[in-house]
Amino acid sequence: MAATVSMTDGERARVAAAVTAAEASTSGEIVTILAASSDDYDDVAIAWAAFLGLAGLIALALFPDFALGAYDRLTGAWAQEWPAGKLFGVAALVAALGFTGAWLLLLWRPLRLALTPAPIRHRRVHARALAAFRIGAERRTTGRTGVLIYLSMAEHRAEIVADETIAGKVPADIWGAALAAMLVEIKAGRMADGLIAAIGQVGLVLAEHFPRSEDDRNELPDRLIEV
What we know:
- By secondary structure, the protein is an alpha/beta fold.
- The protein folds into two domains: 141 residues, Roll (Diaminopimelate Epimerase, Chain A, domain 1); 73 residues, no CATH class.
- It is built from nine helices and four strands, in the order H-E-H-H-H-H-H-E-E-H-H-H-E.
- The termini are close together.
């Protein structure tokens, strides 16, 4: 996993204060998580490396004379007949070089992420957000009124996941305004402001549907969780 995205202590304090302020008018509980990345995408890197290794074999099959002639020139050998064993050896070498070279290139995470199809990135972020919600918020409040705001920086994607009581009253698309408000700020390089904007929007929705009761207590941490 990529290194954790860090914020200043002042920014963390501002985010926590925004959660506290939003929860002052609602019995809902807001949890914020900032992730550097939602997945290592090792399987994608392996798939690309295997594909490029296979591409090398296909090129060898399509242009054998060129490939074998190049091998002779590189090794200083005279033009010769190629026995089957040696042909298979060259084929194995081409596949191994293609796979290894691609894998080494894909150790550079920006390239690995750029070569990961968007639908895969979106599914991984969603799955990680759900996993984080189940660990940190789901059914951990008395009225099952927890909401997770999850931001994954490498994928430039955010998710809002709500507990079952909230999901039963609030349509999922209602969180679109909160996500839009967050992404506007984040695109401008203001990460803390983006989270604070989303927290404010979520707080308004929760206050409308789940106003704070007199005996309400804070059941989940207000602080920003960084992973």
